[in-house]
User: What shape does this take?
Amino acid sequence: MNTIESNTNEEKRSLSFVEQLVEDDIAAGKNGKRIQTRFPPEPNGYLHIGHAKAICMDFGVAENYNGVCNLRFDDTNPSKENNEYVENILHDISWLGFKWGNIYYASDYFEKLWELAVWMIKTGKAYVDEQSSETIAAQKGTPTEPGVPSPYRDRPAEESLALFEKMNTAEAVEGSMVLRAKLDMANPNMHFRDPIIYRIIQTPHHRTGTKWHCYPMYDFAHGQSDYFEGVTHSICTLEFVPHRPLYDKFIDFLKDFDHTADNLQDNRPRQIEFNRLNLTYTVMSKRKLHTLVDENLVNGWDDPRMPTLCGMRRRGYSPESIRGFIDSIGYTKFDALNDVALLEAAVREDLNKKATRVSAVLDPVKLVITNYPEGQTEEMEAINNPENEADGSHTITFSKNLWIERADFMEDAPKKFFRMSPGKEVRLKNAYIVMCTGCTKDAEGNIIEIQAEYDPISKSGLEGANRKVKGTLHWVSADHCIKAEVREYDRLFNIENPSADDRDFRELLNPDSLTVHSNCYVESYLAEKKPGDYLQFQRTGYFMLDPDTTPERLIFNKTVGLKDTWAKEMKKN
Ligand code: ATP
Ligand code: MG
Assistant: This one.
């Protein structure tokens, strides 16, 4: 916990290399000292914690330097995109606590991009290639060997123009033709070897319907879109480093084509790349996350085991803990694998401040207070959060018949067992000191009931009992509690870095990543709680109500344990 905190503070004191570049640009008076960034999700899936890292950067730079961050949906591939994703992306960004300036769509620029492509054809900078994508790939060469020019490379502009028009008709066959930029088949940067800039897709687009039949590739849309919007700093991840010269090249073409932009001479977006977030024991590739969902290997995008923001929200992670974690790992120019234990530590640190302390018994056994009058009840005060007095308190009902955790009792206990055991005293949290007097077993020897006697003058908060007892146990009253199901989660994958493994990633899934405790009891105060309320089940961990809850059955997700049990396991080994 301490390391996270000190890291966070350090991070605040020193600028990230991206912020340093931004400050240099401001100092040099670039773009009239204006700062504009964008977050550019493709609406083809749900956001994950890796996206949150990009969001924190894009929105953070805008916030810190009095600029604006817009959202731009990079919707250039209708075959995988839809409005459900758009809606959820908006929701997740708001949940993280960021506000965008405008919402833009790459599809808003299809007309302009088309005109630019036509101009490129007319000026000998692009041509229609009728070879298959396999052939084109085979002709690309290697970084040390030049590629083979397409036989269509030097076809007349009129021919390409007519075919380009044809590409944009309902009759065009996907894969039959592409438009390629005519750049340099020998360039050591493979992205310059006549990159494909338009391809035919006949799936209707979620915004433009069937207006278009061919669509620009990412490289032909991204930089231009940045330019159209007046983005000053286009911050992205390291895999785009080799794309940067192409990004700049297409903007050069755009300037030659569209002289109305001449007055914006120094207004060219600058691409800056930082390292992706990769987390241990999970995968971050959208393709793999899609597979997990589509093959029912998890229960949807918001399964609490998923690295998606909706999954983490459902599990009970707070937006502040995710942002705190991202702050603590920082931004560099080298890809690395981040330890999920750091994320969990950030979650604990934040929930410790936020969570309401409540009582819940996950593996119950009956405890009877034999000298407590039958039918009598008392309302005991339970402090909601010792870390925050303003959170107040609630009451929990005490009575003769209680539930406690099975693991809190031992008939023949070793010396250091400070929980319940015959002849020993413990405190029942917020209530009395009780002395265990014995237990009852069934025919198989299973303990079915524990007996104890309470000391009436030992009530919590009163002066009565001036002796100290070592153990304090949580409990709920058997007649004043609610039945509940608790879902406990472990790592989704069995190995630290499933993405670096040669085996099919599905074989690497942890078969025990979900444990359901179906026979739990929680105090009745929890009937008032909703998904989104942060809870601590005392002595157990942090929990959140799941939306699957019904009035008859409360369902809770375990967010994270109170301590890092994983680290303890590692030490033992
Ligand atoms: P895919 O997995 O299909 O390649 P993607 O994860 O890159 O897709 P996009 O919607 O294109 O998804 O991403 C939007 C932005 O989020 C991009 O700027 C991208 O660089 C950034 N981003 C995506 N994954 C990560 C990550 N793991 N860490 C940091 N930033 C990320
Ligand atoms: Mg991408």
